[in-house]
Amino acid sequence: MRILYFGKRHFILFLLSAMLLLSTLYAHDATHKLADKIIVVDASHGGINPGANRPGVLEKDINLAIALELKNILNQYGAKVVLSRQADVELSDECDNEKVHRDLVARVEMVEESDADLFVSIHANAVANAVANAVANAKRHGAEAFFSAKSETGKALATSIQTALCTVTQASRTAKAADYFVLRRNKIPAALVEVGYITNIEERLLLQTPEYQRKIVEAIAQGIYQFFNKGNLQHTQSFDSKARGIYRSAWLIAIEVLGSFCPPDKTAASIAESSAH
Ligand SMILES: [Zn+2]
């Protein structure tokens, strides 16, 4: 009986040690970088709203291609992703002056309904057609990340994404505050990424290739991961601390279980003795 008792206790301790080891490995596994996170990826414009456009290029198409690829990578990191759209559709079928506003409201409501941790909106940029500075405008290029001036976590997120984007686009930009509706109205960390300028001929061509889209997407995903990794999030715990919490709870339960097998006022010998009756 005594052998059986010690065997069971050692087995439980072995099991707990294995759980602790696995939790450490899991927390540092790249495929689970963003486990337990819910991220809304907003493919801006769509349907009747093409966004910026130049002959043969519509912003809404670039946004969707990048958003779909971003979903794939974030899924590989373990995050749940909610896409604002998965096809060439607008989010409001109202065809009046309110339609753009309703479309934007729908994107923010999606965040509230999904209880998301983070929001990132994908756009492509364009310089307005202007005779003055036309040459300089045509050369303007580079990805840019924006945040709401009222959100410190939004600023941290946009800065993290911008840092990663600079390594891809060779741009030396910093994230900027901007008063965009989807940033202003979001209660969670939110960033808006202009992936590049379709008014720049070279960048326009790059933005249409899957290879360059993949580079942009990897940078955005890396920026999001770095944001969480630096502990910027108050909305939910970071994965590492949550994993530690779960396994600490497991330890406490195990200690309770062990305690019920071996009450502190009874020795193993006395348990063996009493069980013999
Ligand atoms: Zn746009």
Structural notes for this entry:
- There is one protein chain.
- With 277 residues, the protein is of the alpha/beta class.
- It folds into two domains: 2-27 and 242-272; 37-229, Zn-dependent exopeptidases (Aminopeptidase, 3-Layer(aba) Sandwich).
- It is 53% helix and 13% strand.
- The chain has helices at residues 2-27, 59-76, 99-114, 134-139, 152-169, 181-184, 201-207, 210-229, 239-261, 268-275; strands at 38-43, 53-54, 57-58, 80-83, 118-125, 144-147, 176-177, 190-197.
- Helix 1 runs antiparallel to helix 9, helix 2 crosses helix 8 (210-229) and helix 5 (152-169) packs antiparallel against helix 8.
- The N and C termini lie close together (12 Å).
- The structure holds zinc ion.
- Zinc ion is lined by residues 44-45, 51-52, 59, 123.
Summarize the entry for a quick read.
53% of the residues lie in helices and 13% in strands. By secondary structure, it is an alpha/beta fold. It has 2 domains: 2-27 and 242-272; 37-229, Zn-dependent exopeptidases (Aminopeptidase, 3-Layer(aba) Sandwich).
- Spatial strand sequence of the major β-sheet: 4-1-5-8-6-7
Average the pLDDT over all residues and give the rounded result.
80
Q: So how many helices?
A: 10
The distinct bound ligands, ions and cofactors come out as: zinc ion
Q: How many strands in all?
A: 8
What is the SS-derived class?
alpha/beta
Largest sheet: 6 strands, mixed
In the residues, how many domains can be counted?
2
Radius of gyration: 26 Å
Please report the first level of CATH classification, the CATH class of the largest domain: Alpha Beta
What are the secondary-structure elements, in order, as H or E?
HEEEHEHEHEHEHEHHHH
Q: What percentage of amino acids are in beta strands?
A: 5-15%
